[in-house]
Amino acid sequence: MIETKMTVASFDVYPNSTMKPSALQRHMQQLAREDCDAMGCTYNNMRDVNMVFVMTKLGISVSKPVFAYDELTVRTFNNRVSGITFEREFEFFRNGEKVIHATTQWVIVKYDDRSIVRPRSFPFEISSYDLDCGSIPLPRSITPDGEPCDAGLRRVALSDLDENDHLNNCVYSDVAMDVLKEYDRKTQYVKDVKIIFRHEAKLGDELSLSVGSRASEENGASYVVSAVNNTSGLACFESEITLGNI
To answer: Which of 96, 204, 224, 235 is deepest in the core (most CB within 10 A)?
Structure first.
């Protein structure tokens, strides 16, 4: 477990000063890296044995909007291992009040062929806490009510890539938000995000995007953005985004 403080920067936010999901994800990614580093499970050590972590699912819940220059205390920990899945939690506090919770699921794959590595074959020790911390339930799939609408194409660029040489998980929420015309950048913030990462996208891959909507008793209306990788012919991701008023 690791805890640190952060300040929301000017480049982390939308025009209305609310924090972008992608910016939040970048802070989460770095903090998870530092937590693993502290346990000896550094990226370089993993690459030396041909292994890397990849995210398979993400859930973010923002109870109150977070703005530029807000000071947050952030905590992350690997909560449990279930089958092949590592479940990592993130908690963000502002003035002692938890304002964001995120749940992420990860698997270990071989870097060269992306085949799954079972936790028992992982040569590093990752602590698990098994805390009742309000984990976000993550669905098996995300589908809209009715037929989605075409939302255009997106080609993976060099600036989208990470050390695993694929579209970084932090970029997926930007890809989704860029085609969500319903978002009012003056009056709304991103309240909830769920993403299922189906198959990786690589440099030059062409993604075909679609947008739909769905209704739920808990959050009201939300929007479903998904993508098919035209280059590989495989599903790339599914996401659900819920908006709230500032």
So the answer is: 224
